[in-house]
Amino acid sequence: GGDHTITYPILQAVAEKHGPMGLVHVDAHTDTGDKALGEKIYHGTPFRRCVEEGLLDCSRVVQIGIRGSSYDPDPYKYCRDQGFRVVPAEECWRKSLVPLMGEVRKQMGDKPVYISFDIDGLDPAYAPGTGTPEVAGLTPAQALEIIRGCKGLNVVGCDLVEVAPMYDVSGNTALLGANLLFEMLCVLPRVQT
To answer: How far is it, in rounded angstroms, from Cα 151 to Cα 141?
Structure first.
């Protein structure tokens, strides 16, 4: 629910209980900006704020589906400098993400992991009802591979953000979002599927 700003206070609460989190982040954008219009907290900054507060175990952060325009010649430099693994969308085109998720499971180990899924990680052909659509994104099948690939991890929380009903004329984005949330519930520890 809501825009990606909501993940910041959630991670504050989860990290208070579990310590620095691993993060599986699906998005078109890294959401590691510093500020916009003078504001340090908005939907493009939550993961920078989380890094600054020590809420993330940066060696266990993976961002999948990243793409889109940028004003910076190296838009993923901040993320890589923190130790994040950035998987641009073009590295996902025309292939299964099952092998990638095998690598991600090894990277995450048995420590606590949070899943944050921005619906704009998917191509707007499938999920047009979002405020910042970017072409050439992931497919719904790849989204399922990512989420199902988290089964067996120590998932301590998850979210799905950026569904914008006013742009979701067909209702397809909401339907897809609801299905992805159901899949996330199914990969929580001790859930029988």
So the answer is: 16
Mean pLDDT value of segment 189-193: 88
Q: What is the rounded (10 degree) CA torsion for 126, 128, 137, 20?
A: -110
Joined together, the tokens standing for residue 38 give 């003078």
Residue (of 5, 67, 93, 77) closest to 41 by Cα position:
5
Integer Cα distance of 65 and 25 in angstroms = 9
Q: Number of structural domains, the chain?
A: 1
Q: What is the CATH number of the domain that holds 155?
A: 3.40.800.10
Among residues 29, 129, 108, which one has the least CA distance to residue 70?
Answer: 29
- Alpha carbon of 19 to those of 10, 16, 40, 54, 113: distances in Å? 13, 6, 23, 9, 10
> What is the end-to-end Cα distance of the chain in Å, rounded?
24
CA distance 79 to 99: 22
pLDDT in tens, 117-162: 999 999 999 999 999 999 999 999 999 999 999 999 999 999 999 9
On whether residue 154 sits in a domain, the answer given is yes
Q: Token pair of 100, please?
A: 């990638």
Give the model confidence (pLDDT) of 92-126 as tens digits: 999 999 999 999 999 999 999 999 999 999 999 99
